[in-house]
Task: structure prediction
Amino acid sequence: MQFGISTHLYHDERLTRGHLAEIAASGFECVELYATRSHFDYHDEGAIARLAEWLRDTGLELTSVHAPITDRMAGGRWTPAFSTAATDQTRRQAALRETEEELGLARDRVEVLARMPQYCTRTGFCVTPVVGVLAPPLVLVPDRREVEEVFEVPLGFLLDPRNHERRTREYQGQMVGYYVIQYGERHIWGATAGMIVNLYRMLG
Result:
């Protein structure tokens, strides 16, 4: 079992190598990156390169990225104020287009609520999740080249932290952590489960 902690400990400061060294010196093996822009700007390629170097130097494993949709946290409050308006029209339209192409769901059936922070996987893919509401009844025509199956899960079940199971497996010679959400016979894991956990954290 690995023990880790979030850099949220230092959320009111710009993340430095010293912070990670202090975490490693305290006996932790892995770390969650708390990615408000005032703490760590994951849009900055230079910052990402420095982070990779710091992780190698300290021997810490980065297991997850918590990327709130606000810029910073000050005095225990998110600033600027949380907004459910997704302002990036290009990414919104791309998400709607992909949903229409892969599920046969007409774009005008989706009420977009918010665009979540980008989610990047260990294999190098980055996804920008978009949250929306669908009005029943729905007629879906999945593209079988892209989608094997479509199923529904109650939102309350997905957002219940008791259903967010943390597991580990070996990847490229190292043990890495990931989330699993078990719903009946359905096994939701990896990036999908990670994005659901991020949504829970944002709403919490």
The helical segments are 17-25, 45-58, 89-103, 155-158, 190-203.
